[in-house]
Write a structure and sequence with these properties.
The complex is a heterodimer of chains A (115) and B (112). Chain A has 115 residues and is mostly beta strands. Chain A is built from no helices and 10 strands. Helix content of chain A is 0%, strand content 49%. A 6-stranded mixed sheet of chain A has the order 2-10-9-4-5-6, with no helix packed on it. A 4-stranded antiparallel sheet of chain A has the order 1-3-8-7, with no helix packed on it. The radius of gyration of chain A is 13 Å and the shape is globular. The termini of chain A are far apart. By secondary structure, chain B is mostly beta strands. The mean pLDDT of chain B is 96. The chains are: A mainly beta (115), B mainly beta (112).
Chain lengths: 115, 112
């Protein structure tokens, strides 16, 4: 069974940093691209970043470029999102999702940016 | 860059059929596959349609997807509506020009 489990969310002050993790199981993690998608309270889905299976290709939404860094460790079946210079508008539930069709999602982890 | 536009909300009665549209602003809707996700309150999104018209295992055949090049749009049709279908539905595609995932704004389906 495919499982994606996010962790690392929490309350952080504006300008602060946070690192999210996504632990994958039930499939060959190293064979799939991965994504981070977020959802602000009461809002729709917003794609944040993608990383190819071997980390060769990395893409970001304009809203996070230069502040967020996606990475992965295929040996640990894990996906990461390093978030720096956080803003109030980054407050959201952050989901990891598998491949370009996002056919599997985790349960999400809430990030709250507030003073 | 393109956008995907969905109606904000739709409503229909149990047992009826509803169709949710997803219109691509530029470029051909057929250029990249469209996926549809269902999100119930408090839950993560789940795929109900992938690759325009394919149903994942476990998704009832009451759910179907299609694309229409003449209107440059994709559609999700749910027949025999049940109260459990009440949820937010999002379309999604991929922008090959800038390697970005694109979501529609979401449609709230009310079954009453």
């Amino acid at each position: 069974e495919v499982q994606l489990v996010e962790s690392g969310g929490g309350l952080v002050k504006p300008g602060g940093s946070l690192r999210l993790s996504c632990a994958a199981s039930g499939f060959t993690f190293s064979s799939y691209s991965m994504n981070w998608v977020r959802q602000a309270p009461g809002k729709g889905l917003e794609w944040v970043s993608s990383i190819s299976s071997s980390s060769s290709y990395i893409y970001y939404a304009d809203s996070v470029k230069g502040r967020f860094t996606i990475s992965r460790d295929n040996a640990k079946n894990s996906l990461y999102l390093q978030m720096n210079s956080l803003r109030a508008e980054d407050t959201a539930v952050y989901y990891c999702a598998r491949d370009n069709k996002l056919n599997y999602w985790g349960q999400g982890t809430l990030v709250t940016v507030s003073s | 860059n393109f956008m995907l536009t969905q109606p904000h909300s739709v409503s229909e009665s149990p047992g009826k059929t509803v169709t949710i549209s997803c219109t691509r602003s530029s470029g051909s809707i057929a250029s990249n596959y469209v996926q549809w996700y269902q999100q119930r309150p408090g839950s993560s999104p789940t795929t109900v349609i992938y690759e325009d018209n394919q149903r994942p295992s476990g998704v009832p055949d009451r759910f179907s997807g299609s694309i229409d090049s003449s209107s440059n749009s994709a559609s999700l049709t749910i027949s025999g509506l049940k109260t459990e279908d009440e949820a937010d539905y999002y379309c999604q595609s991929y922008d090959s020009s800038n390697h970005r995932v694109v979501f529609g704004g979401g449609t709230k389906l009310t079954v009453l």
